[in-house]
Write a structure and sequence with these properties.
119 residues; mainly beta; Jelly Rolls; seven-stranded mixed sheet; 9% helix
């Protein structure tokens, strides 16, 4: 059993290519949002991390690039950033939450603004 499995929440990302199930770690406190994926192993598909009440991220101390999806308060996609490199910063003023996925997920799932996460 994966030691992090107790932190996984099931969600579905709805895009033009269909419904894509995800296993998410939820970062809903300041400390969990700050730590995020720092020093963590690469995300395995279809894992991700959802940072709630967050409109900007950093990738300091990360070991790999990630895809970043910004969501509004209704979990609708408002911005996508492909392959955010380690030691970078990204933000979206209109976002309420941030979904971090393995690099290549935006292309793989054909994620675009107006798509929706159901959790």
């Amino acid at each position: 059993m994966n030691p992090d499995s107790r932190f996984l929440h099931h969600a579905t990302l709805h895009t033009a290519t269909g419904a894509h199930p995800l296993a998410l770690r939820i970062a809903d406190r300041f400390t969990s949002r700050l730590r995020g994926l720092m020093l963590a192993p690469p995300l395995a598909e279809p894992e991700g991390m959802l940072l709630t009440k967050c409109s900007s991220i950093h990738s300091g101390f990360m070991r790999q690039a990630i895809d970043v999806i910004y969501l509004d308060s209704n979990d609708k996609v408002v911005r996508c950033v492909q392959r955010l490199a380690p030691w970078s910063v990204s933000m979206a003023w209109t976002a309420t939450h941030v979904l971090e996925l393995a690099a290549g997920s935006i292309t793989r799932y054909d994620i675009a603004p107006a798509d929706r996460l159901r959790r």
